[in-house]
Q: What sequence folds into this?
Protein backbone atom coordinates (compact mmCIF):
# COMPACT_ATOMS: atom_id res chain seq x y z
CA UNK A 1 0.00 0.00 0.00
CA UNK A 2 1.11 3.53 -0.71
CA UNK A 3 -0.15 7.08 -0.24
CA UNK A 4 -1.43 9.01 -3.23
CA UNK A 5 -2.25 12.72 -3.21
CA UNK A 6 -5.35 13.55 -5.24
CA UNK A 7 -7.12 16.69 -6.40
CA UNK A 8 -10.45 15.42 -7.68
CA UNK A 9 -12.19 18.65 -8.71
CA UNK A 10 -10.47 20.51 -11.54
CA UNK A 11 -12.12 22.52 -14.32
CA UNK A 12 -10.71 23.11 -17.79
CA UNK A 13 -11.28 25.91 -20.28
CA UNK A 14 -14.50 24.11 -21.25
CA UNK A 15 -16.25 25.26 -18.08
CA UNK A 16 -17.81 28.71 -18.50
CA UNK A 17 -16.14 29.91 -15.31
CA UNK A 18 -12.79 28.27 -16.12
CA UNK A 19 -9.83 30.33 -17.28
CA UNK A 20 -8.62 29.82 -20.85
CA UNK A 21 -5.22 28.99 -19.32
CA UNK A 22 -6.80 25.76 -18.03
CA UNK A 23 -5.74 23.65 -21.01
CA UNK A 24 -5.01 19.91 -20.70
CA UNK A 25 -1.24 20.38 -20.96
CA UNK A 26 -1.17 23.21 -18.44
CA UNK A 27 -3.36 21.33 -15.96
CA UNK A 28 -1.39 18.09 -16.07
CA UNK A 29 2.00 19.81 -15.93
CA UNK A 30 0.91 22.00 -13.01
CA UNK A 31 -0.44 18.98 -11.14
CA UNK A 32 2.89 17.20 -11.56
CA UNK A 33 4.86 20.26 -10.46
CA UNK A 34 2.74 20.42 -7.30
CA UNK A 35 3.37 16.78 -6.45
CA UNK A 36 -0.05 15.32 -7.17
CA UNK A 37 -0.41 11.65 -8.07
CA UNK A 38 -4.06 11.71 -9.15
CA UNK A 39 -6.33 14.36 -10.62
CA UNK A 40 -9.90 14.32 -11.90
CA UNK A 41 -11.23 16.52 -14.69
CA UNK A 42 -14.69 17.75 -13.70
CA UNK A 43 -16.10 20.35 -16.05
CA UNK A 44 -19.65 21.59 -15.66
CA UNK A 45 -22.16 19.35 -17.46
CA UNK A 46 -19.66 18.21 -20.10
CA UNK A 47 -16.81 15.74 -20.53
CA UNK A 48 -15.43 16.93 -23.87
CA UNK A 49 -12.01 17.90 -22.51
CA UNK A 50 -11.48 14.66 -20.61
CA UNK A 51 -9.83 12.61 -23.37
CA UNK A 52 -6.83 14.90 -24.02
CA UNK A 53 -6.23 15.22 -20.27
CA UNK A 54 -6.25 11.43 -19.85
CA UNK A 55 -3.91 10.94 -22.81
CA UNK A 56 -1.46 13.61 -21.61
CA UNK A 57 -1.60 12.14 -18.11
CA UNK A 58 -0.66 8.72 -19.48
CA UNK A 59 2.25 10.29 -21.35
CA UNK A 60 3.57 12.29 -18.39
CA UNK A 61 2.86 9.72 -15.68
CA UNK A 62 -0.09 10.97 -13.65
CA UNK A 63 -3.40 9.16 -13.19
CA UNK A 64 -6.20 11.30 -14.65
CA UNK A 65 -9.71 10.20 -13.72
CA UNK A 66 -12.48 10.96 -16.23
CA UNK A 67 -15.13 13.01 -14.48
CA UNK A 68 -17.81 15.67 -14.60
CA UNK A 69 -19.47 18.15 -12.25
CA UNK A 70 -23.17 17.83 -12.97
CA UNK A 71 -25.59 20.58 -12.04
CA UNK A 72 -28.82 18.70 -11.34
CA UNK A 73 -32.39 19.82 -11.83
CA UNK A 74 -32.39 20.99 -8.19
CA UNK A 75 -29.25 23.11 -8.88
CA UNK A 76 -27.12 20.76 -6.75
CA UNK A 77 -23.55 20.23 -7.98
CA UNK A 78 -22.40 16.61 -7.97
CA UNK A 79 -19.02 15.14 -8.86
CA UNK A 80 -19.12 12.04 -11.04
CA UNK A 81 -16.07 9.84 -11.64
CA UNK A 82 -15.82 7.07 -14.25
CA UNK A 83 -13.64 4.02 -14.93
CA UNK A 84 -12.56 5.03 -18.42
CA UNK A 85 -13.20 6.80 -21.68
CA UNK A 86 -15.91 4.40 -22.84
CA UNK A 87 -18.01 5.09 -19.75
CA UNK A 88 -17.44 8.82 -19.97
CA UNK A 89 -18.48 8.76 -23.62
CA UNK A 90 -21.78 7.13 -22.70
CA UNK A 91 -22.27 9.69 -19.95
CA UNK A 92 -21.69 12.50 -22.46
CA UNK A 93 -24.48 11.08 -24.62
CA UNK A 94 -26.75 11.23 -21.57
CA UNK A 95 -25.72 14.84 -20.86
CA UNK A 96 -26.35 15.88 -24.46
CA UNK A 97 -29.94 14.70 -24.07
CA UNK A 98 -30.44 16.44 -20.73
CA UNK A 99 -28.81 19.86 -21.14
CA UNK A 100 -31.42 22.59 -21.71
CA UNK A 101 -31.26 24.48 -24.98
CA UNK A 102 -30.19 27.75 -23.36
CA UNK A 103 -27.55 29.68 -25.27
CA UNK A 104 -24.31 30.59 -23.53
CA UNK A 105 -23.37 34.26 -23.42
CA UNK A 106 -19.55 34.38 -23.60
CA UNK A 107 -19.42 38.08 -22.75
CA UNK A 108 -21.08 37.34 -19.41
CA UNK A 109 -20.00 33.79 -18.57
CA UNK A 110 -16.91 33.10 -20.65
CA UNK A 111 -16.20 30.83 -23.60
CA UNK A 112 -16.82 27.08 -23.40
CA UNK A 113 -14.15 25.48 -25.59
CA UNK A 114 -12.80 21.97 -26.00
CA UNK A 115 -9.24 21.48 -27.20
CA UNK A 116 -7.05 18.66 -28.48
CA UNK A 117 -3.77 17.35 -27.05
CA UNK A 118 -1.93 20.29 -28.64
CA UNK A 119 -4.25 22.81 -26.96
CA UNK A 120 -5.85 23.71 -30.29
CA UNK A 121 -9.54 24.64 -29.99
CA UNK A 122 -11.63 22.00 -31.77
CA UNK A 123 -15.13 22.71 -30.46
CA UNK A 124 -17.16 25.44 -28.81
CA UNK A 125 -20.22 24.49 -26.78
CA UNK A 126 -22.96 27.01 -27.55
CA UNK A 127 -25.43 25.79 -24.94
CA UNK A 128 -24.90 27.03 -21.41
CA UNK A 129 -23.10 24.40 -19.34
CA UNK A 130 -23.86 26.10 -16.05
CA UNK A 131 -27.63 25.62 -16.00
CA UNK A 132 -29.24 22.64 -14.28
CA UNK A 133 -29.82 19.62 -16.49
CA UNK A 134 -33.26 18.08 -16.99
CA UNK A 135 -32.80 15.30 -14.44
CA UNK A 136 -32.96 15.14 -10.65
CA UNK A 137 -30.14 14.23 -8.30
CA UNK A 138 -31.29 10.66 -7.70
CA UNK A 139 -31.57 9.97 -11.44
CA UNK A 140 -28.05 11.33 -12.00
CA UNK A 141 -26.74 9.13 -9.18
CA UNK A 142 -28.40 6.07 -10.69
CA UNK A 143 -26.95 6.85 -14.13
CA UNK A 144 -23.44 7.24 -12.74
CA UNK A 145 -23.62 3.95 -10.86
CA UNK A 146 -25.06 2.16 -13.90
CA UNK A 147 -21.84 3.07 -15.73
CA UNK A 148 -19.63 1.78 -12.90
CA UNK A 149 -18.89 5.26 -11.62
CA UNK A 150 -18.55 7.04 -8.29
CA UNK A 151 -21.02 9.72 -7.17
CA UNK A 152 -20.08 12.55 -4.78
CA UNK A 153 -22.22 15.59 -3.91
CA UNK A 154 -19.88 18.57 -4.28
CA UNK A 155 -18.92 21.37 -1.85
CA UNK A 156 -21.76 20.45 0.49
CA UNK A 157 -20.82 23.30 2.87
CA UNK A 158 -21.69 25.97 0.31
CA UNK A 159 -25.11 27.61 0.31
CA UNK A 160 -25.07 28.02 -3.47
CA UNK A 161 -25.22 24.70 -5.34
CA UNK A 162 -24.41 22.61 -2.25
CA UNK A 163 -26.87 19.89 -1.30
CA UNK A 164 -27.62 21.36 2.14
CA UNK A 165 -28.01 24.86 0.72
CA UNK A 166 -30.33 23.75 -2.08
CA UNK A 167 -32.34 20.98 -0.40
CA UNK A 168 -31.74 21.54 3.31
CA UNK A 169 -30.84 17.87 3.83
CA UNK A 170 -29.35 14.83 2.13
CA UNK A 171 -32.14 12.58 0.81
CA UNK A 172 -32.24 9.37 2.82
CA UNK A 173 -32.25 7.13 -0.25
CA UNK A 174 -29.49 8.96 -2.15
CA UNK A 175 -26.75 6.38 -2.75
CA UNK A 176 -23.66 8.59 -2.69
CA UNK A 177 -20.13 7.23 -2.32
CA UNK A 178 -18.56 10.20 -0.50
CA UNK A 179 -19.15 13.88 0.22
CA UNK A 180 -16.94 16.81 -0.76
CA UNK A 181 -16.22 19.78 1.50
CA UNK A 182 -14.80 22.89 -0.16
CA UNK A 183 -11.31 24.24 0.34
CA UNK A 184 -12.72 27.20 2.28
CA UNK A 185 -14.17 25.04 5.07
CA UNK A 186 -12.31 22.96 7.64
CA UNK A 187 -13.89 19.48 7.72
CA UNK A 188 -13.94 19.28 11.52
CA UNK A 189 -15.90 22.55 11.72
CA UNK A 190 -18.51 21.35 9.25
CA UNK A 191 -18.80 17.93 10.88
CA UNK A 192 -19.55 19.60 14.20
CA UNK A 193 -22.49 21.27 12.49
CA UNK A 194 -23.57 18.03 10.78
CA UNK A 195 -22.70 15.04 13.01
CA UNK A 196 -25.07 12.90 10.93
CA UNK A 197 -22.34 12.59 8.25
CA UNK A 198 -19.42 12.01 10.63
CA UNK A 199 -19.10 8.37 9.54
CA UNK A 200 -19.10 9.19 5.81
CA UNK A 201 -16.06 9.46 3.56
CA UNK A 202 -15.13 13.12 3.16
CA UNK A 203 -13.12 14.50 0.24
CA UNK A 204 -11.44 17.88 -0.14
CA UNK A 205 -10.37 19.17 -3.53
CA UNK A 206 -9.45 22.50 -5.03
CA UNK A 207 -12.39 23.15 -7.38
CA UNK A 208 -9.68 24.80 -9.46
CA UNK A 209 -10.73 27.22 -12.19
CA UNK A 210 -7.23 28.72 -12.42
CA UNK A 211 -3.82 27.03 -12.48
CA UNK A 212 -2.70 28.50 -9.16
CA UNK A 213 -5.68 26.88 -7.41
CA UNK A 214 -4.66 23.33 -8.36
CA UNK A 215 -3.61 21.34 -5.26
CA UNK A 216 -4.56 24.21 -2.94
CA UNK A 217 -6.17 21.38 -0.96
CA UNK A 218 -6.13 17.67 -1.68
CA UNK A 219 -7.17 14.27 -0.35
CA UNK A 220 -4.69 11.51 0.51
CA UNK A 221 -5.67 7.97 -0.47
CA UNK A 222 -4.17 4.72 0.76
CA UNK A 223 -4.03 2.55 -2.36
CA UNK A 224 -2.20 -0.42 -3.80
CA UNK A 225 -1.65 1.19 -7.20
CA UNK A 226 -2.54 4.32 -9.09
CA UNK A 227 -5.41 2.84 -11.10
CA UNK A 228 -9.19 2.82 -11.17
CA UNK A 229 -9.74 -0.44 -9.30
CA UNK A 230 -7.49 0.64 -6.44
CA UNK A 231 -9.09 4.08 -6.43
CA UNK A 232 -12.60 2.68 -6.24
CA UNK A 233 -11.58 0.21 -3.54
CA UNK A 234 -10.25 3.12 -1.47
CA UNK A 235 -13.80 4.48 -1.22
CA UNK A 236 -15.10 1.32 0.41
CA UNK A 237 -12.10 -0.01 2.28
A:
Amino acid sequence: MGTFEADLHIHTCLSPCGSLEMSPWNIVQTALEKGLDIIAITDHNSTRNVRPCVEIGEKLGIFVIPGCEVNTQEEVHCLCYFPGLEAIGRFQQYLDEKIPDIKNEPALFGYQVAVDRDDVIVYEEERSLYTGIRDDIESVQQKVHSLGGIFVPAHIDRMKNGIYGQLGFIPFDLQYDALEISRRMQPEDFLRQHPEIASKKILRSSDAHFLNHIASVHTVFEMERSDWESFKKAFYG
About this structure: Strands lie at 2-10, 38-41, 63-71, 77-81, 113-115, 121-124, 150-153, 179-181, 202-204, 219-223.
